[in-house]
Write a structure and sequence with these properties.
This protein is α/β, with parallel strands linked by helices. It has six helices and four strands, in the order E-H-E-H-H-E-H-E-H-H. Strands 2-1-3-4 form a four-stranded parallel beta sheet, with helices on both faces.
Length: 156
Amino acid sequence: MIHVLFVCLGNICRSPMAEAVLRHKIEERGLNHQIQVDSAGTGDWHISKPPHEGTRNLLDTYQIPYANMAARQFGSADFEQFDYIVCMDDSNVANVRKIAGGAEADILKFMDLLPNESLREVPDPYFTGNFEEVYGLVDAGCNVLLERIQKDHSLA
């Protein structure tokens, strides 16, 4: 089983959106028995809360399930469990590296999946309100990530 973890600040907007979108794409390709997806936040403000209303509304619009998703905080044990740790912005990367405490961690910045985009971080719609912009980036980046995973692990 291949494990993917998306990380943002509070785990209610960007990372659960990416989790739901990638899960949906995995399901569509029949890879749900080979790839598992989760999300976490570096902060603890929203632990156990569902995704933000803006994220839920957008996922509903695109008929992408998100049932039973609840915010959780990123922890050191995640380094052992996940093959891909994908952070939404530079601050998330720094916080995850700090939790790693010098341990070698394979951390990927989400926007590195989309090198032709002018944005270098996924904007936080909790502050910007622009959930549609984030969805467009997440959808495109998840396509690239899934292709990468399939290539890395020779999945059909």
